[in-house]
Design brief:
Blueprint (H helix, E strand, L loop, with lengths): L8 H45 L2 E3 L6 E3 L3 H7 L2 H32 L6 H13 L2 H11 L6 H8 L14 H25 L4 H9 L4 H12 L1 H15 L4 H6 L11 H11 L3 H25 L10
Antiparallel strand pairs: 1-2
């Protein structure tokens, strides 16, 4: 004769908790399913397909696909224009990200001091972010115009020589970099300004009573306390810098003499001008790996210096 032991109260409680967790997980999965399907169809699958096409000879509009292994990558290794576009992309990132974030931090600190007309200043600095990229590019083409552009008019008024900004290989990329800093500094400023609102004011009061200068307050109080936001802004800035395409397309078409050709524009050229999808996919894969490596470097360097409240 066998006896069946009834479950104890603790066992019943554990089973109830597990059942509740399963129901919550199922509910979360159902709620996330539309977004996951969208991401899989329009983000992850295109990435996987692009990485696969890098090993094939694929021509735009053709159904013939031939496996060629690493030939696309070997051609890129010997392609001077690829290395030039990679170098231009890195230069653009190295200059634009620190400059735009540094300017944004200075603007955010200035606006955090409760100056008169702060709302107007915020709107003014944030306005470039709301301007569509193509429209902003066309505006700056006019500003940089060598004959009648306001920038050259100002330089002439100051007694400086006029420059053919977008038509000179030495100045075309710096001109686009300057415009990009103008475009994105306001976006970063708004994020940093929100973080500054959470910094306790008594810390600044105590620092002023101890005779600490404003610069040292910025370095030793402000930056450590908003370091999570700064870290987020740096990551977003790096991602933005490697997505540059519209400014180059509108303002220079990669010229003059490929001085402003960047990886995204070179992908466009190979895919839609040269109709070489395989080479374009190989470049896209390299760009993905470069961005991933840079984000990893940022995480290993700046990420370890982030100070979270309560930790």
């Amino acid at each position: 004769m066998t006896t069946t032991l009834a479950p104890t109260g603790a066992a019943i409680s554990t089973m109830a908790v597990r059942s509740q967790r399963r129901r919550e997980s199922l509910t979360a999965l159902v709620m996330l399913a539309p977004s996951l399907v969208f991401l899989a169809a329009f983000t992850y699958w295109p990435i996987v397909r692009s990485m696969a096409y890098g090993f094939f000879d694929v021509q735009l509009g053709s159904t013939d696909i031939f496996f060629i292994g690493w030939d696309n990558y070997r051609r890129l290794w010997l392609d001077e224009l690829f290395w030039k576009s990679l170098r231009n992309t890195v230069v653009y990132m190295v200059v634009t990200v620190p400059a735009s974030i540094g300017l944004a931090l200075l603007l955010a600190v200035a606006l955090d001091r409760k100056l008169r007309g702060t709302a107007l200043y915020r709107s003014t600095f944030f306005y470039p972010v709301m301007v569509p990229s193509v429209a902003a590019g066309m505006v700056w083409v006019f500003l940089y115009a060598p004959g009648y552009g306001p920038i050259n008019g100002l330089m002439e008024w100051l007694g400086l020589p006029k420059l053919e900004w977008l038509y000179d290989a030495r100045w075309a990329l710096p001109a686009i970099i300057f415009m990009s800093i103008w475009k994105y500094a306001g976006y970063f400023m708004l994020i940093l300004l929100a973080a500054l609102q959470l910094v306790p004011r008594d810390l600044y009061e105590a620092a002023r009573l101890d005779g600490v200068s404003g610069f040292r307050q910025l370095v030793h109080i402000t930056v450590p306390l908003i370091s999570p936001t700064l870290y987020f802004v740096v990551v977003i800035g790096v991602l933005h810098s490697y997505q540059i395409f519209d400014y180059v397309f509108v303002m220079t078409q990669g010229g003059p003499a490929d001085a402003t050709n960047v990886l995204t524009f070179y992908i466009y050229q190979n895919a839609f001008q040269f109709q070489d999808i395989g080479t374009a996919s190989a470049i896209a894969t390299i760009l993905l790996l470069v961005v991933g490596a840079l984000i990893g470097i940022v995480a290993l360097t700046l990420g370890r210096r982030v100070h979270y409240l309560g930790r």
